Amino acid sequence: MLIYYLRYPQYAIIKIEGHIEGFELDKFRQPFQELALLGCQTIILNFEKINYISSSILGYLIEEWRRKAEKGGKVVVCCLTPKVANLFEITHLFSIIDVYETEEEAIEAIKKG
């Protein structure tokens, strides 16, 4: 798994490539923790290059979504691959986390509030 982020004044974009396995949870958490220390409470997760997400990663994603919401922030997701979209459907994450077709749509939604 490759993970990195881009920081902007109103939000950050976390980009991830590959499989996100449960044993990589600490690596997945790292950008969230770094961004929290920088005061960033709004995050866009770009899943364009993701093939698989483990249940422990999904659990952390929900936890992070709740943490950001409590502080007035957001976690949104964009660019789901068909496999990951199916997983979001099965786990009902579409009813919890805002999902956008493109990164540009996610950015516009964040800017609008």
From TrEMBL:
<comment type="similarity">
    <text>Belongs to the anti-sigma-factor antagonist family.</text>
</comment>
<dbReference type="InterPro" id="IPR002645">
    <property type="entry name" value="STAS_dom"/>
</dbReference>
<dbReference type="InterPro" id="IPR003658">
    <property type="entry name" value="Anti-sigma_ant"/>
</dbReference>
<protein>
    <recommendedName>
        <fullName>Anti-sigma factor antagonist</fullName>
    </recommendedName>
</protein>
<dbReference type="Pfam" id="PF01740">
    <property type="entry name" value="STAS"/>
</dbReference>
<feature type="domain" description="STAS">
    <location>
        <begin position="1"/>
        <end position="110"/>
    </location>
</feature>
<dbReference type="InterPro" id="IPR036513">
    <property type="entry name" value="STAS_dom_sf"/>
</dbReference>
